Amino acid sequence: MAGLIAHEWIERVGGAEKVLDAFADTYADADMFCLWNDAPERYSRKVRESFLARTPLRGRKALAMPLMPQVWSSMGGADYEWLLVSSHLFAHQAQVPGLDPNRKFVYTHTPARYLWEPELDARGASPAVRAASPLFRALDARAAREHRNVAANSDFVRDRIARTWSVEATVIHPPVDVARLQQVDDWRDELDEFEAEFMASATAPYLLGASRFVPYKQLDTVITAGATTGMPVIIAGAGPDEDRLRTHAAQLGADVRFVINPSDALLAALMQQATVYFFPAVEDFGIMPVEAMALGTPVIVNAVGGASESLLEGQTGIALADFSPAALAEAVTTVAAMNPEACRARAREFSTSRFQSEIRSWMSL
To answer: Hey, is 235 helix, strand or coil?
Structure first.
């Protein structure tokens, strides 16, 4: 059957792109469409872009937002027998002329947080977004109520969909490339000379925080946990919050090393050798805690959000509601003693093959 996979915009890295990769592998003959494609080498097939890609609005998400509903409601194109949408803003509004509504499937990373729950997304604080939000919410909810098949990437997002769109959704957790992570016994063997030298100096035990350096990721909490427990901390990633995080570490006198833009191999090695992987952000799901568990490392996550759905409480990690110094210290001590094999086994339940099987079953193609 001729099908179409639609996605908001394609970036070089990102959790939504990993879902899109799995969709593309599952339906190798489907056409693909997005607003603009910033990773043209990512797929062997052609990805059709919207007219926005040929304008100065390309990549300028906030400025392009008023035109996005129009783009999705008038995609045009060939006759398709089904439509699979990967949506975290307005892509769920995509329309294919003449398509049976029962053959449209919307995989929802989240309803647009900066419209519906701006307290969870700093972009919602923009005066322009605040002014436009009532109109966009009304249009968004009206379009969503027409959907017959909606999936959410977590129970947390399913509840948000019910609260904002008044729509029921099936939960299908995102794919995690567990097989790739677990096919290497020791990721230190995959490092270049410089990286290997760094890992040799990063002797356990240490706490690891890894993500983009932005405030909502709450990496300062990882630094606080290190200062409280006296354990070294490694913070891996990059972003505009770096200076603030370095200042926070200096003020606490914490033993913190920053690894900027680590390679995939170095990040895997850091995860594999860490005593605890710390993920304090409120996320819709959280792929990185599953990656850490896949490498045998137990996790501490925020009890609020979707990350708590991936761990086995008390066996592969702890979902923490209290981030006081005493609670952080107790959590680190408890989690550090957890069984690495239990972590690896739990992570396999979130594999890419599992995701693809659940998508096929949901779509019944």
So the answer is: strand
Amino acid in the structure at residue 130: R
Strands ordered across the beta sheet of 207-212: 256-260, 233-238, 207-212, 276-279, 299-302, 317-320
pTM value is 0.91
CA distances from 279 to 34, 49, 129 (A): 31, 35, 29
- Residues 22 and 20: their CA atoms lie apart, in Å, by 5
From CA 175, how far away is CA 266, in angstroms rounded?
A: 21
Cα dihedral value 160, 163, 169, 174, nearest 10: 0
- 58: number of Cβ within 10 Å: 18
Q: What share of the chain is helix, strand, coil (3-state, %, to 5)?
A: 50, 15, 35
What confidence tens digit (pLDDT) does each residue in 315-330 have?
999 999 999 999 999 9
> Exposed/middle/buried for 298, CB within 10 Å: 0-12, 13-18, 19+?
buried
Report the distance separating Cα 216 and Cα 288, nearest Å.
Answer: 15
What's the rounded Cα separation, in Å, for the pair 80 and 91? 17
pLDDT tens for each residue of 191-235: 999 999 999 999 889 999 999 999 989 999 999 999 999 999 999
The torsion angles phi and psi of 6, rounded to 5 degrees, stand at: -120, 140
Strand, helix or coil for residue 6: strand
Q: Which parts of 13-119 are beta strand (E)?
A: 31-34, 47-49, 82-87, 104-108
